[in-house]
Amino acid sequence: MMDTTADYEEAGRWYTAEDIPTFKIAEDGTVDWPTFSGFRRYNAECFQCHGPDGAGGSYAPALMNSVKTLDYYEFVNTVVNGKQEVNASQNLVMPALGDNPNVMCYLDDIYTYLRARGADELGRGRPAKKAQKSDEFAELEDACMGG
Ligand code: HEC
Asked: Against a cut of 0.90, is the pTM above it?
């Protein structure tokens, strides 16, 4: 299991001591904004193949488990460039999503959401309580989306 401990916050996002985006969930269940955003973006962009709550579908693997062994850079690389497994019994295609701003601007959000699910820190469904989006985070988001 890779380290998911939140060490420091920058522009509204938490990072591990190794500078990897991570989640921060308060004792009362309040989820940091980026992780909540990741829940929404996952449902918009990944859900149809990877199934509800990162738990896997009939077509594509459970990403909440993938992120336990796949490191951050491998995760990003797979989403940017796609992946295709071709053998006698199956032909599965992970599309290359590197040109899709609705994915790329929210990829760290999706990653921290999946890591929270994989670490068993976040249950299924929509997180009930979320922290507010910081102004700094909103500015970076707008800049990424070209706003
Ligand atoms: C059109 C269906 C489809 C969509 C949409 C899709 N994926 Fe995939 N994804 C796949 C398939 C199929 C695989 C398995 C490919 C393989 O094993 O070669 C996969 C594999 C992956 C892997 C590698 C998993 C592993 O354990 O090696 C990652 C990471 C991933 N997808 C992330 C995402 C994310 C994040 C999104 C949303 C932004 C997304 N995918 C959207 C179909 C999809």
From this structure: yes
